[in-house]
Backbone:
């Protein structure tokens, strides 16, 4: 297991732990189904990144580098934002952060992977053998 994959797994676990801590800090009881849905949504970018990396391990160097950097950016960004919410004074609606960060992660992942694919296609089209 490479270090990037291990970092993503640790980031996923840390993100869920922080989400549960912030949810526990809330005075109201959270229905189990809502907790399951939030957990799935928070984990979804991490799972997607691990699947993308696992599906096709041999990639052009540019795509591989973009994917690894993306994995680290999503992991560190999520932990920093979630950690800030957990360590700051209680907010009126902390759940919004746990909805928006995965959405932003999905958007970033889509943009980066599309750019890498377009660059890879343009490089293969420009090559003498392509």
Residues:
């Amino acid at each position: 297991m490479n270090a990037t994959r291990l970092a993503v797994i640790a980031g996923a676990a840390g993100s869920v732990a922080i989400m549960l801590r912030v949810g526990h800090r809330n005075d109201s009881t959270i229905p189990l189904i809502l907790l399951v849905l939030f957990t799935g949504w928070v984990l979804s970018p991490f799972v997607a990144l691990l699947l993308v990396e696992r599906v096709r391990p041999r990639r052009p160097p540019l795509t591989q580098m973009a994917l690894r950097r993306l994995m680290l950016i999503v992991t560190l960004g999520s932990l920093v934002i979630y950690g800030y919410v957990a360590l700051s004074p209680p907010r009126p609606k902390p759940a919004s952060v746990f909805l928006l960060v995965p959405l932003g992660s999905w958007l970033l992942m889509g943009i980066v992977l599309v750019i890498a694919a377009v660059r890879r296609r343009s490089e293969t089209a420009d090559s003498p053998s392509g």
